[in-house]
Amino acid sequence: MSSYRRALSGDWYTDPVVFADELDRIFARTWQLVGHVGQLAEPGDYLTASVGDQGVAVTRLADGSLHAMYNVCQHRGHELLTDDVGHTSSLTCPYHAWNYDLDGRLLHARGESVGEICVPSVRLDTLGGFLWVNLDDDAASLSDTVPDIEDELLAVAPSAAGRTLTHRRTHLVSANWKLAVENYNECYHCPNVHKSFTKGVVSPGSYRIAGRGQAIRHSAEAPASTGYSLAEGGQPYESFFVFPVSSIQCYPGEVLNTFRWVPLAVDRTLLIREWWFDSDTPTAEQDEIIDLDWRTTVSEDFSILDSVQRGLRSRGYVPRSAHRTSRRRGHRPLRGCSPPPARPGPCCAGTMTATRELGGFLADPALRISDDHIDRAVDCLVDTLGCMVYGAGQPWSQRAAAHARRTGGDGGPCPVVGSGFATSAPMAAFANGASGHAFELDDVHEEAISHPGAVVIPAVLAIAAETGASGLAVLEAIVVGYEAMGRAGIAVGPASHMLAGYHPPASPGCLVLPQRLGAFWTSDPG
């Protein structure tokens, strides 16, 4: 099993159309780090931040509560607050002096009626004392998005909520935001680019990466000699990355720092690096570790990212492989089923459709499935069942199971994994598919950018339970289901239909599954 997966093509990092769509489909719908409660200690304190291309402001109200809103005057669109942090009794637009309360309610507008005008609010939450906002009112909660991360953070940094910002550095990177966060989340380049980091800050052999919902936890230990006096050997290094552009790092020696990447253009990203300590008075040791951190990791990446961004525009660049730091993030899909000899496909009223042609190929008795394919299907089955067992305990999977029970009834022939009941085949496939796709643990078809296991295997198992199909028939159906999803996904084009708002596992899966699963009853694909 290879530890590599195919990289995205260069236009994902260089196309302004892709970047504009990401601002809407990613940055306007995800939780992003904007600051810390320690920056808003008193009523009237405020901070501003960028969420994608949108400005937001967070204020401490008179009653002590926190409030987040868009940083924009409702008159002509001028930013209400132009400083990163500050203190004020009310918000006055610098343009025409419209005056707002700290919660965004308009108090006074010269020559105008105040009415019910109010600056739109945005969702706000905290995690370990850090402030997070989400522009999407319908998005899942922060705790559901990154389960267990707050407990894990406080376990290694118990005083996180009481920390004070002592140092801040920024740098404009001439690279796409995805390059920056991908570089951050893999350490394949560390021995070559960050020699001091791998020798003096962490022990490379102890480096581990694990998924947590939309978060990634990096863990390592400091070597016996750390290279700086603030820490001792054997202490942990922990990092919590939250998709798409936020990270909290805990270095040995009680050092807590954050990364924020702000996308400014398709090839421009602002890096904001901040350090948080228990005291607001910087010490020589704090300056030492911050300087070492900036020298040995952060700044060493700048020229690398700039060069990769230029290289991705090259006509000579052919995407091949990008290192996958965790094999549990996916596995190589089934591919290479030998196609049958060419023959006319089925037709209907003289018309050949792509769906019917694919169905004819999948149902063709001449399709050769080797023993290696069957062995690989067993691996995929076991892997996906493990994902389903783990995913069944998640809140979103439990909601899917409850819907399946209400819709399909209780006592059907098809078990719902981890729930203790059985229901109809369609509802069992739905619930088990949700569990299998609950976390980024499932398999990946590299070229189709799809997760066939979460679609194919729950459907195959449900129909097998209803029809009494043999174990061999189940494995053969898995083989061909994987092959079908891969072929359909490549044909549809993952980039184009993702940008159109369709999720790859859903659209090719719905297209191809009926073709093969019908073989449990009939060889007629039509």
Name the descriptors.
Naphthalene 1,2-dioxygenase Alpha Subunit, Chain A, domain 1; 2-methylcitrate dehydratase PrpD; seven-stranded antiparallel sheet; 3 domains; 16 helices; four-stranded antiparallel sheet; disordered C terminus; Rieske Iron-sulfur Protein; alpha+beta
Describe the structure.
- With 526 residues, the chain is α+β, with helices and mostly antiparallel strands.
- It folds into three domains: 1-27 and 146-315 and 322-328, Naphthalene 1,2-dioxygenase Alpha Subunit, Chain A, domain 1 (Alpha-Beta Complex), CATH 3.90.380.10; 31-140, Rieske [2Fe-2S] iron-sulphur domain (Rieske Iron-sulfur Protein, 3-layer Sandwich); 330-520, 2-methylcitrate dehydratase PrpD.
- 36% of the residues lie in helices and 21% in strands.
- The protein has 16 helices and 21 strands.
- The strands form six sheets. It has a seven-stranded antiparallel β-sheet, with helices on both faces.
- Strand 17 (255-265) and strand 18 (268-277) form a beta hairpin.
- Helix 11 (395-408) runs antiparallel to helix 12 (425-436).
- It is globular and about 75 Å long.
- Residues 225-231, 323-351 and 520-526 have low confidence and may be disordered.
In brief:
This protein is α+β, with helices and mostly antiparallel strands and 526 residues long.
